[in-house]
Amino acid sequence: MAAVVLAGGRARRLGGVDKVLLPVGATTLLERALGAVAGSAPIVVVGPRRATGAPVLWTREEPPGGGPLAGLAAGLRRVPGTAEFVAVLAADHPHVTAATVDRLRRSVGERSGAVLVDPGDRPQWLVGVWRTAALRAAMPADPAGGSLRSAVAGLAPVLVPDVAGESADVDTPDDLRRARDR
């Protein structure tokens, strides 16, 4: 299994800081995401280069700031064709762990993928494990500014319930405070 970690974005609601370098506990959001997919090879990180404690491949979406779908498409271009599965994880989900990714992978079964579902039953399209070929086939020719949900929802992934808040992401100062308090 390969992994694509989305580590771009403008973090407007956090004042434009480099969100993935914010610490939660003793670890940055980026390092937490890399830990969750540590068993994957390769790990492709989409976003500006930053220092990491893990060996990763870096890439950028075109155009920069083109959104999550463009980021995913860029990441998939670096995933080898031999990878049957690819974990997809936005780096702003501090409570996703290796156990989460493993649970998603085991849930795929014969389907095209599995995504985490938050307590409100909303699929978290940026926390999933997919069959690489199916995900590649779902990518539009021009992904810039496109909707990730529109591209992948038709793949009908298995919906895997959140366990103890692992679907929570960090988009606002209040989200960051809650993540740090947990």
TrEMBL record:
Q: Where is the signal peptide?
A: none
Give UniProt keywords alphabetically: Cytoplasm, GTP-binding, Magnesium, Metal-binding, Molybdenum cofactor biosynthesis, Nucleotide-binding, Nucleotidyltransferase, Transferase
What InterPro entries does the annotation carry? MobA-like_NTP_Trfase (IPR025877), Molybde_CF_guanTrfase (IPR013482), Nucleotide-diphossugar_trans (IPR029044)
MobA-like NTP transferase domain: from which residue to which, for each copy? 3-142
Is Hydrolase one of the keywords UniProt gives this record? no
Which residues, by range, are in coiled-coil regions?
none
Q: Name the SUPFAM superfamilies for this protein.
A: Nucleotide-diphospho-sugar transferases
Q: Which GO terms describe its molecular function?
A: nucleotidyltransferase activity
Q: What's the protein name?
A: Molybdenum cofactor guanylyltransferase
Q: Which organism is it from?
A: Saccharopolyspora cebuensis
